[in-house]
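This part of the workshop introduces the protein records we will be handling. To make this concrete, we reproduce a full record directly below.
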Amino acid sequence: MHNLPNFVHLHFDKTADELGDIEKRVLKKAHERKVISTDINAAISAESSTGQRLADGIARVGGSWSFIIAFLLFLVFWCIINTIVLATGAFDPYPFIFLNLVLSMLAAIQAPIIMMSQNRQAERDRFEAAKDYEVNLKSELEVLSLHQKIDMQVLTELATLRQEFIALRKNIEGAREVPNN
């Protein structure tokens, strides 16, 4: 990558001015021989706020089988307490209007929190795809650069062999022209 403008034009089919930010950053890192891959989990965690981490935690718990089973047990317990145990003095008799209110409030709060977490997951996926693109692009550039170096080495060796062959042929022809005494 010693001749950068020709390298850019040859491999990107556009001029250096037409390159995007990602391509420019990848070229710079490749030219500096620096690593471009990063730990995506660490990068996302470093940028996330307390609220975002809380939303992810709530979505992780709310979307698990342990939460579903625990909540199912809670509902069964609620129904048993209010129908059998407290048959005469139930605080939420059948049709469990207070339980419906609690469930509605829980759903009203939990749904946006889970959506926030899903939006963050989509953002994370976009970030990961961009990083994958950068790493793949740098890998391609490095492979192309290696091909170019190998091609140059092969051409240099062929030129050297050609010169040695010509010199050898001249020596052989010169030896034939010398008369034997």
